[in-house]
Amino acid sequence: MKAFISVLTVIFAHFIFILFLGIRVEDFTSETVLFFMMVYTVPLLLLVSNSALAYRSTNRRKRWIWLITSIVPGCLFIVSAKYQPTSPGGFPIFPDYQIELGFFLPAIHCFLQIIWLLDWVATRKH
Prior knowledge:
By secondary structure, this protein is mainly alpha-helical. It has helices spanning 2-21, 30-56, 60-82, 98-122. It has one domain. It is 75% helix and 0% strand. α1 packs parallel to α3 (60-82). It is elongated, with a radius of gyration of 16 Å. 16% of the residues are buried. The model is unreliable at 87-91 (pLDDT under 50).
């Protein structure tokens, strides 16, 4: 049950940041929903498996670090994408936010969750 609550905490934290900052997807059609479902499937599966492995561990400090590293980088990226400079010398603007939420945010989560998965497997007691 704690693992499920952790997964929901990570998901809701990102939704709260998206809603709080007022980020909207301009073209919200069934194709967009299908696209988001396909792109977010792998990060979500990694998140669920890492959550289960985290709560099998006896190291409470490591569990908290996993939870924080699952929430903070994505939320920081959402904030930075929202407040991008409009000057041409800055990072490219994401006009409808579909690009960064569709590719970069899941990539960040996949990268971090794969690192955690490798760590959980490497430090697992046999």
